[in-house]
């Protein structure tokens, strides 16, 4: 099997939670889209990234069932891993920066796949939601503290691919930030943290903590299981 890294993106303040991400640093080992899609399905992460040019930051993103022109948590995680000033995606060039414990990207809301942003009266209603049947991609959210920009959210991709709920989704956070027009501090899933801030001319920044969970090298029989903290 192909070598890949496992990251956790948008981790909580103590380093827990976060959305798992697979990153194949040498995309040349699987140049065909069909092979990449097959590996993404086998790995089973909500997204898997193939790096086609690590110096320029050229990447290719897949869910277990489809290819995406842009996605938030894959870009935040891969930008941190490669330590590059930008990423080149099919949707456009994504700005990237590291700021202390946070990895940030800058993207446009129109790059994000369509999402239904569904507001609820309060966090307890969001917490009580059952996973809906496959179909609509729903980002359920409620204010925890509107004055402070704090939000409770859960994400239901609505796909029949084994991913019932996304632990942390940067693209949906970008869409919500664009709609509300203000900086947000989002607690999603079991305790992941996503920070956002609107920027001039239709851009939105989204950031969070990234941890390297392990490096998987099946061909060499190596899988380092000790998490490494963000740089």
UniProtKB/TrEMBL annotation:
The active site is at residue 47. One of its GO terms (molecular function) is catalytic activity. SUPFAM superfamilies: Diaminopimelate epimerase-like. Gene3D superfamilies: Diaminopimelate Epimerase, Chain A, domain 1. Pfam families: PhzC-PhzF. This is PhzF family phenazine biosynthesis protein.
